[in-house]
């Protein structure tokens, strides 16, 4: 399948148009069926989502368990490459399984979900598993991803929230936090909030840092708990955590919310604030 978008800027949002304007999503090989899973995980137990030699990752752990069940190699496509320490609630993966195993039940979505949940809890849990269309890909079929970042804003930390939040004891101005979000909406070059990527070793192109933000807002949940929600087409490395770090500086009065537009226009990492710690961030949902 050739995947295109009704949005004429889609190709710019994730990579330069000259490098790649369409994505070819191959159908499963003959005799294989595509499956998809929605998974949740405690990121503190892993060195990120994507596989990396020599360290324990979410994708590596779940792939190994699926391969143990189906007894053939499996290649995972993942919706979001979360960093070490970042959690997931709505992460989506897709992969292909021998059709005969699916039909027999040995490789069925329900059977694989039970196996992963038995072997990988509490670090990883399969929340949903089902058959997928032949042209579905967890990464390239996604049209948006949403993240949540949790702040504990009170003088005394909470040991029960420490693993999933950032404790900020200083007073935060929620109005300044909200105002700082206004400039984030729309299509921008987010170089000021991202690590500069390496050029593609084959084409020589440097990946675009243009991203479209559809939503960015703060919510007061009570008892000093603040939550930042952001939904975008895709993200570059450390983008959300750098945005949160900059917004917290605005909430503490070190920067004015009106500076956000200038920080974006600068396209310079040194113009923005520090990177918020990973444990407060969670990949919440992926839209298709």
UniProtKB/TrEMBL annotation:
Keyword set includes Isomerase: yes
Which Gene Ontology terms cover its molecular function? pseudouridine synthase activity; RNA binding
Q: Name one Pfam family in it.
A: PseudoU_synth_1
GO biological process terms on file: tRNA pseudouridine synthesis
Q: Keywords, A to Z?
A: Isomerase, tRNA processing
Specify the Pseudouridine synthase I TruA alpha/beta domain's residue ranges.
183-288
Q: Which InterPro entries match?
A: PsdUridine_synth_cat_dom_sf, PsdUridine_synth_TruA, PsdUridine_synth_TruA_a/b_dom, PsdUridine_synth_TruA_C, TruA/RsuA/RluB/E/F_N
**In its UniProt entry, what is this protein called?**
Unannotated protein
Q: Name the species this protein comes from.
A: freshwater metagenome
């Amino acid at each position: 399948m050739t995947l295109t978008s009704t949005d004429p800027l889609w190709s710019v949002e994730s990579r330069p148009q000259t490098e790649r304007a369409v994505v070819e999503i191959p159908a499963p090989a003959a005799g294989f069926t595509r499956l998809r899973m929605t998974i949740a995980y405690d990121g503190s137990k892993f060195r990120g989502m994507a596989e990396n030699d020599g360290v324990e990752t979410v994708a590596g752990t779940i792939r190994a368990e699926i391969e143990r069940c189906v007894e053939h190699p499996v290649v995972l496509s993942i919706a979001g490459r979360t960093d070490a320490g970042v959690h997931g609630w709505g992460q989506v993966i897709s992969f292909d399984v021998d059709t005969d195993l699916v039909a027999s039940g040995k490789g069925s979505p329900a059977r694989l979900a039970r196996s992963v949940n038995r072997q990988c809890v509490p670090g990883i849990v399969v929340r949903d598993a089902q058959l997928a269309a032949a042209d579905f890909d967890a990464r390239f079929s996604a049209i948006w991803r949403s993240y949540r970042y949790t702040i504990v804003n009170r003088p005394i930390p909470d040991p029960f929230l420490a693993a999933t939040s950032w404790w900020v004891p200083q007073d935060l101005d929620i109005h300044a936090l909200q105002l700082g979000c206004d400039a984030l909406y729309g299509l921008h070059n987010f170089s000021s909030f991202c690590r500069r990527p390496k050029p593609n070793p084959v084409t020589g192109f440097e990946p675009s840092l243009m991203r479209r933000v559809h939503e960015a807002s703060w919510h007061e949940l009570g008892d000093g708990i603040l939550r930042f929600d952001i939904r975008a087409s895709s993200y570059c490395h450390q983008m959300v955590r750098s945005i949160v770090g900059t917004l917290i500086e605005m909430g503490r009065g070190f920067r004015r919310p009106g500076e956000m537009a200038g920080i974006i226009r600068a396209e310079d990492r040194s113009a923005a604030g520090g990177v918020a710690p990973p444990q407060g961030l969670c990949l919440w949902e992926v839209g298709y």
